Amino acid sequence: MKKKINMQFLIMSLTAILLTLGISVAVSYNVLKKEIMQNLKTCTHILMGTGVFDDMEHMEYNASKDNLRITLIGEDGKVEYDSDVDIAGMENHENRPEIEQAVKDGEGESIRTSETVGQSMFYYAVRLSDGRVFRVAKETGNLFSILAPSFPIAIVLAMFLAVLGAVLAHYLTKSIVTPIEQMANDMDHLESICTYKELKPFITTIQEQHDDIKKNADMRQEFTANVSHELKTPLTSISGYSELIENGMANDEDVVRFAGEIHQSANRLLTLINDIIRLSELDVSTEVILYENLDLYEMAVKCVSMLEMNAGKHDVTLKLVGKSTHLNANKEMMNELLYNLCDNAIRYNKKGGSVTVSVGETNDNVILSVEDTGIGIPDEHKNRVFERFYRVDKSRSKQTGGTGLGLAIVKHIVAQHHAKLELNSEIGVGTKISVLFPKKKEG
Questions:
Q1: Rounded distance, CA 272 to CA 406, Å?
Q2: 443 falls in which pLDDT band (50, 70, 90)?
Q3: Whether this model's pTM surpasses 0.90
Q4: Which domains does the chain have, with CATH numbers?
Q5: Which of 48, 133, 262, 404 is the most buried if burial means most Cβ atoms within 10 Å?
């Protein structure tokens, strides 16, 4: 890449040098043409003012000393006098551009190769009062011969600029590529890379993306390890109890007890797999989420009714307060949200405790709250309870059959609905989790 960029800079430099030289030559030649023509006009009018051509036969002025060629053309276009050429062999000049223009406008000029002398000539012609045309010409070389004296200087200057361009291209390429190479070699210390200010936003973006990738990689690695551990526990239990039954090492009473343990572990395994699949779907889902107008209170009624038997097993009372409140949301996700919040509140409650589900609204938000009288969450754990497989009390979680993924699913659903989570908890008193759904602004 470095060679390619360097070569592109060199090509740009050489192109700029050649264009500059070409334009300079063109401008210089145009300036030179104007200067020569202006000199011809001046000489012509001076010579006419001296009257030196009044008597052409006895004229003593030697035009060749001033590198001029003087011609007098009659009204019929026939050459009457020429300072350089014998007029006997000259053709009619009435069709010469400068002669035609002088006859028409009083004066005329042109630059061309003379048909008579075969040289590049500058012509300036003036119509006299008697109708004849007086013409003064100056011989010049071609463009190459005119600018030839300046070519050595131009070549030296071009070479100097080419070398300078190559050096600058090298250092400019290095300044562009070096930070990128440093980034490629050490992505973990991008802040230490010295670069020009225009590249800093790019480096900042790369650093943020790199940090996100590392964070996601760490999370996936941790998630994989946790999944392996969580799946291993019930599978070990199922394998152990079934092996005892298979080898005839269990009596009738043990068989019944072992079958119950196997059934419980299988249910835990099934719940865990379902939660893992659902969480993965929420992570990678590219489907368009369908939103509809839902009565959140009505959905809460169904959820509480469904979980009343489970709450009774844990000696927990379920209550619902609030009123009919409508929300634009995904129905399936709202059911999951309600279930996971309520199920979590039941699992981590105390015997004889209660869970209160509240549905209400303010001017800006629809609010769903689930409050329990459970064990509470210590302050140092509050920021992590929504992480996957994170448990405040791991032994209690295993006893209650929790997977450690319920609140992680809740967090995903809340994010999908652009809502806000609030957690208030006190050890031994209980926990309250509130979800604030923003109302859709009208108009």
A1: 10
A2: very low
A3: no
A4: 2-148 (3.30.450.20), 206-284 (1.10.287.130), 292-438 (3.30.565.10)
A5: 133
